[in-house]
């Protein structure tokens, strides 16, 4: 089984859009990692996230706004030979992005970000109360570095392989 880089922008965006969660990694002032699963929106090279106004992640990001955001498609268990343990792999696509969190404070931009996030999950149009918009923390992450991989791909010499849902 092989791992291949993915370089086509459309394919990378397809992986991002197919995910229902992303994982946001950050490091505190002592270098301790902290990773959160988050829902998100994506548009034109920007990941939009939202959270409460305060909390551990906000404290970390106020000191160090650098983040790593990971996306992974639904993994599937694959193998070439059911009797050979080292022929088993997970098959999926992943995207890893790096960027810097900027907290959006402008009301109309926060509404726009919420619309982008909600559009990722629904085709409906939503309205938001003024207190809801004022009380949400909007994270804007312009993607600075993006890498993507397709892994668990059967090699060219593979006679056959089986694909089974892992979960």
Notes on the protein architecture:
This protein has 167 residues and is an alpha+beta fold. Helices cover 23% and strands 44% of the residues. Strands 1, 2, 3, 4, 5, 6, 7, 8, 9 and 10 form a ten-stranded antiparallel β-sheet that branches. A hairpin with an 8-residue loop joins strand 7 and strand 8 (88-104). The model has no long low-confidence stretch (mean pLDDT 90).
pLDDT averaged residue by residue: 90
Q: Determine the structural class based on helices, strands and strand pairing.
A: alpha+beta
Number of helices: 4
User: N-to-C terminal Cα separation, in Å?
Assistant: 20 Å
CATH domain fold name: Pnp Oxidase, Chain A
Strand share of the residues? 35-45%
Structural shape: globular
Order of helices and strands: EHEEEEHEEEHHEE
Quaternary structure classification: single chain
In CATH, the architecture is: Roll
Report the strand count: 10
Low-confidence parts: none
| CATH superfamily annotation | Electron Transport, Fmn-binding Protein, Chain A
Q: What is the number of domains?
A: 1
Radius of gyration: 19 Å
Kindly provide the name of the CATH class.
Mainly Beta
């Amino acid at each position: 089984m092989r791992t291949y880089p993915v370089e086509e922008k459309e394919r990378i965006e397809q992986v991002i859009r197919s995910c229902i969660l992303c994982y946001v990694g950050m490091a505190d002032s002592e270098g301790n990692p902290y990773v959160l699963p988050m829902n998100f929106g994506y548009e034109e090279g920007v990941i939009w996230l939202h959270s409460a106004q305060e909390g551990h992640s906000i404290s970390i990001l106020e000191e160090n706004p650098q983040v790593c955001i990971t996306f992974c498609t639904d993994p599937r268990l694959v193998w070439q030979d059911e009797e050979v343990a080292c022929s088993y792999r997970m098959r999926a696509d992943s995207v890893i992005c790096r960027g810097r969190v900027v907290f959006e404070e402008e009301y109309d931009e926060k509404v726009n970000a919420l619309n982008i996030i909600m559009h990722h999950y629904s085709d409906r149009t939503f309205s938001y109360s003024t207190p809801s918009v004022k009380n949400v923390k909007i994270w804007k992450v312009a993607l600075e570095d993006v890498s993507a991989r397709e892994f668990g791909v059967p090699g060219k010499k593979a006679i056959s392989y089986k694909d089974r849902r892992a979960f």
